[in-house]
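The authors assume throughout that readers already know how a fold can be written as discrete tokens. Each protein is reduced to its one-letter sequence and a matching series of backbone shape codes. I therefore recommend that a typical entry be quoted early in the introduction. For illustration, here is how one protein appears when written out as sequence plus structure tokens:
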Amino acid sequence: MAHDHDHDNELDPFAARVRALETILTQKGLIDPAAIDVIVDTYETKIGPRNGARVVAKAWSDAAYADWLKRDATAAIGSLSYTGRQGEHMQAVFNTGETHNLVVCTLCSCYPWSVLGLPPVWYKAPPYRSRAVIDPRGVLEEFGLTLPMTKKIRVWDSTAELRYLVVPMRPKGTEGWSEEQLAGLVSRDAMIGTAVAKEPT
């Protein structure tokens, strides 16, 4: 029997299920694909990860804010109006010269959307979720981040009740930079812990 529709063979099983569900809901008139596109674009380019980068930049620039972020990340982040879906309960963990922090959700894919935007595909993948706990140093190396053996790696497991934001170390040579300039050095991956802040050029 001939079929006149395209198959999503290039998609992974999860993405194929999402595509099929979206198609059915669209055909029933329950959703508007254009509206979904706007929501996705909002989370990818407007809500995050720019929001998180601004939080980090403020912490680098303002010692009092950094202290507040350490004590009560939910309130400190909320003061910048970055609240909402999956960002209700936050904890900030600060990288230091001795310790590097890495965030994972071993149960599913808990992630602070309001601060970091949409989670990357690899964050939700079983290999990352399992190996980040078992072999964090090896996982970081696969991301291109090789840390000295003397540096401790601490892994934080996000849950439905608590999500984490990694505050990377401020790069040298950025004294006197504005918060906007500093935010440009902070990537989503640095706030998950699979990267560090960019060096100034």
